[in-house]
Amino acid sequence: MTDSTMKMDAPPSTWQRFKESHFWHSFRIDRVAQISFAIFVLYVVMALSASFIAPFDPYDPSQIDILDSEIPPSWDDEGDERFLLGTDAQGRDMLSTILYGTRVSITIGICAVLLQAFLGIVIGLTAGYVGGRVDSLLMRIADIQLSFSTMMVAIIVLAVFQATFGTELYQELAMIMLILVIGIAEWPQYARTIRASVLAEKKKEYVDAARVMGFGRLRIMFRHILPNTLSPILVISTVQIANAIISEASLSFLGLGMPVSQPSLGSLISSGFEYIFSGAWWITVIPGLVLIVLVLVMNLLGDWMRDVLNPKLYKG
Question: Per its UniProt record, what Pfam families does this chain match (predicted)?
Fold first, then answer.
């Protein structure tokens, strides 16, 4: 057998199957998806590289001068070339604080969604596969959870924690608290979706075959059923990251999010809001635009993935 024949008989690699998939084909022809993905990757790269590309360190008091406060962006007549996007009321470089703040917002968004996904997948798989009273109990808990607004639950929990344990401890644990509150408040979105997928999958022949072979429940649920329910998980996760970032920004705007010493996009918008009518518009407007673009591209990617991964919407 020649080498060319062996190459023809060899199964296609994972990368080759991906390039020939409908997912990749749809991405190549959809300019909105390409631009949205490129912008999101740019956000992530710049956020992760904030320590290297930021002109100043907003966490270092020695690099902050109160005399440099409220300097307009460099293109303004009163601007300073040192500060491309101007400075805030504390004299911090806006470009640096936005880079660090974007990293904080994206970190909270992704970690909160990972927690949501973990809780939702475990609960949804259990409810859908076991069924019966377990299913009824878990879904009633999910219904009760959904009856409360995420923001309402987060405000109550964070305000009580801050009042009970003090502002200093809260500021030290602000990121962990935000991740926990946002993550725990949104798990029913995953659980209900996964449960519906499991109810359809567990009636298929491959699940019956796994039972006949003597596999346990956990192996069937996580090794066989879960991989076939990943499409809706990916779609939900994309949208939920945007929602988590918005929730964090809203809580920070209300004073229940990240402290001023560890700025997120929400806390930057909040800290500059009182100066917007005094002429220092850039302190709020620029972080606001950065947040809007980030959430917009995440939602556009979520809409595109929903259309591509839903076979009912695929028209060939």
Answer: BPD_transp_1, OppC_N
